[in-house]
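Sequence in, structure out.
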Amino acid sequence: MVLLEGGTFLMGTEATDGFPEDREGPIRDVKVAPFWIDPLPLTNERFARFVDATAFVSEAEREGWSFVFGGLLPDDFEDTAGVVGAEWWRQVFGATWRHPEGPHSDVAERPDHPVVHVSWNDAQAYCAWAGLRLPTEAEWEFAARGGLEQARYPWGDDLTPGDRWMCNIWQGTFPTSNTLDDGFMGTAPVGSFPANGFGMHDVSGNTWDWVADRFAPTGPAMVIRGGSYLCHDSYCNRYRVAARSSNTPDSSTGNMGFRCARDA
């Protein structure tokens, strides 16, 4: 884990291309105490150790299905139900952290990829076993900013400095055509892209990170941060470092994972 000394930073944004309903602003001074945080999202290999030690059964496994991006399914995959208004999300029976695209897929070939199809509740169970916790939203953003004040991304304000892709997001026309300019269609092995100034990887793109906070003071939704391999400027530029979104604590998808933290 990376030890961060904490301090006061400017959290949030007032960027006009954000999402007002996400309450990214106002920009405010926030103080965080020193803390430790994983520089990488939790991998399939690490989650498997937890499952092997505890016989833990994830919520997707108990429910029998999870949401998979349709573009990752084989052309001959059986018809599945989609989410109204976001039909690229398909209900796939047998999709779990072990089988990210359904029974025909297996994480044995992806030990160093971020674990997905884990709910907030699943992440909490892992943290309890490991003696860790999820980072607070403020801790997460402090770490993701890497010491840069109000930069748009963890590395600065240019999405592709020197024409170099710095994160795993969608290129092309979403959701029909991905040019794969960054080299990946789905998840990438953790740490495939450069770290920020605090040594943090994958805080933009690859997979969303669950954090400890509720999205609103009341209501069930929990915050997710960082965006994923499906984010694209045409509809979801939430790979910006101040961006935030949410999901219910029992939800799982093929692009949500987590990283851990602990008090210093």
